[in-house]
Amino acid sequence: MADMLFIVARATNGVIAKDGDVPWQISEDLKRFKKLTIGKPMIMGRKTFEALPGVLPGRRHIVLTRQQDWQAEGAEVARSAEHAMEMVGDADCSVIGGAEIFDLFWDRATTFELTEVFEDTVGEVSMRGPADDPTWREVARESRPAADGWPPYDFVTFERVPER
Ligand SMILES: NC(=O)c1ccc[n+]([C@@H]2O[C@H](COP(=O)([O-])OP(=O)(O)OC[C@H]3O[C@@H](n4cnc5c(N)ncnc54)[C@H](OP(=O)(O)O)[C@@H]3O)[C@@H](O)[C@H]2O)c1
Fold first, then answer.
1. Each residue's pLDDT expressed in tens, for the chain with a length of 164 residues
2. Ligand 1 environment, Cβ below 6 A
3. What is d(CA 66, CA 81) in angstroms, rounded to the nearest whole number?
4. Whose CA is nearest to atom 47 of ligand 1?
5. Using CB atoms within 10 A as the burial measure, which of 98, 121, 153, 160 is most buried?
6. Domain boundaries, the chain
7. Residue 46: which residues within 8 A CB-CB, separation 6 or more?
8. How far is the C-alpha of 151 from the C-alpha of 164, rounded, in Å?
9. What CATH number is given for 4-160 in this structure?
């Protein structure tokens, strides 16, 4: 099976969105997002697509919506998780959110790249984290101090615990 990568920045209290956007604009995190997603199809929800600053170069944008007439330049519309998977085919892909879409693909993802942001953020969207699910195990962690007005954070990689 091809790899499916989850990538998310999440506060200690689970929050991932504030005022319709990612709560932090940490430049190393944005660079890492680009490095991890470039060249692979990205699956996302319609709300996440609309929150992007624009279509991101070098990556297909597969956007889930239930609205029959929704379309946007640069977006390939998927009607269900299965439809999105068909569009991806055998390729490795990334799932970039939001919470509804992480829920939908939770059991299919093979790697979870988490930016764990050490604050309790006030925001309107939150999600569970991989540390709360024993089917994920942490395999790497790099810590970063607070800087440029942003809280400290860790880049954490989780992989699926192999089935026995
Ligand atoms: N911190 C992070 O790393 C991060 C990552 C991603 C997003 N975000 C933020 O999270 C917010 C959006 O997250 P969200 O959870 O509210 O929304 P979302 O998951 O991005 O999108 C939800 C939408 O996806 C569509 N959808 C959901 N399930 C579907 C299904 N089974 N079949 C077809 N379509 C389906 C629906 O679109 P329709 O309503 O059009 O039918 C639904 O309203 C934004 O503010 C974004 O900036 C943060």
1. 699 999 999 999 999 999 999 999 999 999 999 999 999 999 999 999 999 999 999 999 999 999 999 999 999 999 999 999 999 999 999 999 999 999 999 999 999 999 999 999 999 999 999 999 999 999 999 999 999 999 999 999 999 998 87
2. 8-9, 16-17, 20-22, 44-48, 51, 64-67, 70, 79-80, 96-101, 104, 125
3. 11
4. 21
5. 153
6. 4-160
7. 63, 64, 65, 67, 70
8. 39
9. 3.40.430.10
